[in-house]
Structures are given as C-alpha cells and as structure tokens.
Amino acid sequence: MSAGDRSRTTTAPARAAIGIVLSALALALVPTAARAATTFGSPTVESTFGTGITFRQPVTLDAAPARVELLITTGGSGGASVIDVTPPAGGGSIVLEHRLNTTGTEHVLPNTPFTARWRVTSAIGADPALGPPVSTTYVDDRFTWQTVSGPVVRVHWYQGSQVFGERALRIGEDAIAKTATLLGVTEKEPVDFFVYADQQAFYDALGPGTRENVGGQANAEIRTLFALIRPEDIDASWVSIVIPHELVHLVFDAAVKNPYHFPPRWLNEGLAVYLSQGFDAGDRSAVANAAKAGTLVPLTGLGGQFPTSADAFSLAYAESVSAVDFFIRAHGQDALVALIRSYADGRTDDEAFTAAIGQDVSGFDAAWLADLGAAAPQRAGPCPAPAGPLPVGWTAAVASQGTTLCATSGTAAAATQSANGLGGLAVGAFVVAALLLAVGAFAVATRLTRRARDDTAT
Ligand SMILES: [Zn+2]
C-alpha cells in the first residue's frame, strides 16, 4: 500500500459515523414528500386506429408527486420519448392516464410497436420511481385481418380467399430469398406484409403526405410492407412486380444499415426495379428519348426525393434502373453488391463508389451519360450573378467560374468574354487608358447581360 493510499484510508467506525451524519443531513434536507412511496399496479394500453393510444397505470401514492412522465419507445427508435403528464393533485390509489393522439399529422403507421413505462418523481431532487413496461402494437383495427406466414414473410389481408393470401406470400418469400442471396444478407426477423383492397383505406393507413400513384410502401424501421392489391388483381402481372419491388427495399435497408448515411435514392430504386421487372422496353425508350431531348436528370439530382410530376417521376425510375443496368454491364454484379454493402461501413457516396469501381459518383454519372450518348445535362436552378470587370490576372478565375457554375445561361459566358477582352486590352496600356477601357467594357458587359436575360425571358 502506498503513502497516498494510506492517506485516504478511513477506519470502519469513522465510515459509520460519517454515514450517520450524512443520513441525518439528507433527512433534514429532503422534503417530506420526497420520502413518499410509489407503488405501481399493472399498466394497460389500448389503441384505436386513426384516433389514439391510451396508456394507463394504477399507482398508490403517499402524496401528490412533483413530476409524472411517460417514457415511450417505438419500433426502430433508439431512446425513449419522454412525455410530461400533469401530476395528480393528491396521493392515494389513482390511475395515471395519457392519450397519444394519432390523428392528422400525428399519424402513426399501422404495425408500429410501442413500449411504455411510467416514471414518477415524488419531489424535486428525489430519485424517480420507474414502473413496469407495457407493450402493444398499433394495429389497423378497421378490418378483420387474415394471416398466412412463411419462413420470413407474414401476409395479412382482409378481402379475398386463402389462395389470394398464399399467392402473395409465395411472391414475397421468393423475392426476399432472391434479394437476400444477391446482397449476402440473412433475413430472419419477420416481415409483415399488409394488403389493402381499396385505395382510401390504403392511403388512410399510410397517412397524410403520401404521394399520389403510390401502390406499395416499405417501412424498414418496422419491417412492414403495405400494398394496394384488390383480390381480382392478385393474378395481374404488376402484382408480381410491386411485391418484390418493395421487399427489395427492406433487404437493401438491412444490407446498408448504418447511422451515418443512406445510399442515393436512385441506387435503391434502381436495384428494386432491376430485380423486380428488369430494365424493360418502356424504361429503355423513356431514357433514350430523354437523352435525345436533353431532359435527363443527372444522377446527382436523383439522390434524394424524386420529382413530383408524373412524367419526371416515371423518368426518375427509368433512369435509376438504367444506371444500375449500366453499372452491372460496366463493372459486374459483384461490384454492385460490394458497392451496396460497403455503405454499411458508413461511407460517403464518393468513398463507396471509388472503392468499388475506382470512380467517384460524378465520374460514374459521366460514364453512364456517355454510354447513353447523352450530353451532360444542363444545370437548372438559381445562377450566380454575372461576372463583372476584374483586374488583370483574375481573368482565368472568372473564365472558370463563368463556364462551370451556370451552364444554363449565356449571361456568365458573355460577361466572361467581355472580361477576357478587358484583360487583353489592359495589358501594356497606361493606367488611365486601362481604367477608361474598363469602364467601356463594363458597359458592354452590362448590355450583353441584359440582352441575355431578355432572351431567356422570351
Ligand atoms: Zn421503390
């Protein structure tokens, strides 16, 4: 034992004495209510779809508590959400209650699991008492669901025969197995697949803000797939496309899961289309026509939400599968799988693409456009202000700025040419003459700029 250790050594009687003093101090400092006991009974939860979820907790309290909270965790979420609940005015045997609103913008997807615990703090500064957990799944109770289960998929439907459910199950299981094998993922956790038979019920389930033309939606957080399939459509060819398409998204999500960065949307959608229906004739001609017309959206423009207009929405899917098709032709399926799986390491898009194929995203984008024989799409959106006259020696920087930042407008290029002209004239001239020329060049540039804007406007 070192001298330092000895200096901190306290004898047992001394520790006991200190303990008694501290306990006395604590008793003196903590208000009476802090010592109040909280006894928890069995909590309950009940929900009504589209209305709310009610949590109840019987408790016995010695006195009115200082704080009552409800801790809620839902599927896929890390920590609990804490809801402050108004404490009761007095003690005794009472039932704490909180109703979670699920209407309108508070919409909750069906099949979302909830676990809740009540936390009661008798007085500020006192340790809170935590009640027992209670769990439920928020179900769409408007219908009586039939269920059929396979190794991974559980199909739930409310209209149509057993044959209907079994066909949907077969399509789903095949799609899961095929995609999981391709991406090297083992799917063990069940996937719930809810089949709605009418459009309004389907949109009610998905909630406000659901985009038009959506026929299916996968939610990886709760491993649930929703699809609109009427019983008479179960044999339709599109059904064997929409189910695998959505299930590919679930497997894709499992393959790339990381806390930092999700892959670009075109890669996710492109793979889903490629595996469920292939790069078919309709998508090929849509992409070819857009390439010819110069209306292709670059892949960098398809990294997030797709466009909303019907034509552009459809073209976005066609371009996505085209890019995946090109990727496989140029680099092979193994490289595609390696690319997708590498996102699980939390890589950026450029890091993932460079590691997989030695090209960053813009390099791949350019190669894809070249394969289509398409010119680089013109950049749309706000443009930088036109360049004005600048001192000699700055012209190179201006030229670079004018040609790369706003390719859609002739304005910057015109101004750049003027500025270049200014630079050439100024070299070797007297300072005063140069200044006069600069003023003249600025005026020319301004006129050119105005004409370009007018031309654009008409
Ligand atoms: Zn999709």
Structural class: alpha+beta
Give the domain tally: 3
- What does the oligomeric state look like here? single chain
CATH architecture of the largest domain: Orthogonal Bundle
Bound molecules: zinc ion
Q: Specify the overall morphology.
A: globular
Tell me the radius of gyration. Answer: 33 Å
**Biggest β-sheet, characterized?**
5 strands, antiparallel
Question: Which bin fits the share of residues in helices?
Answer: 40-55%
Description:
By secondary structure, this protein is of the alpha+beta class. The chain folds into 3 domains: 35-138, Immunoglobulins (Immunoglobulin-like, Sandwich), CATH 2.60.40.10; 146-372, Neutral Protease Domain 2 (Neutral Protease, domain 2, Orthogonal Bundle); 395-457, no CATH class. The protein is 44% helix and 18% strand. Strands 4, 5, 7, 8 and 9 form a 5-stranded antiparallel sheet that branches. The chain has a 5-stranded mixed sheet with strand order 10-11-12-14-13. α6 crosses α8 and α8 crosses α9 (333-342). The longest helix is centred in the last third of the chain and has 27 residues, at 431-457. Residues 1-35, 398-405 and 407-458 have low confidence and may be disordered. The structure holds zinc ion. Zinc ion binds at residues 245, 249, 269, 272.
From the structure above, extract its key features.
disordered C terminus, binds zinc ion, Neutral Protease, domain 2, 18% strand, 5-stranded antiparallel sheet, 14 strands, 3 domains, disordered N terminus, 14 helices, 458 residues, Immunoglobulin-like, 44% helix, 5-stranded mixed sheet, alpha+beta
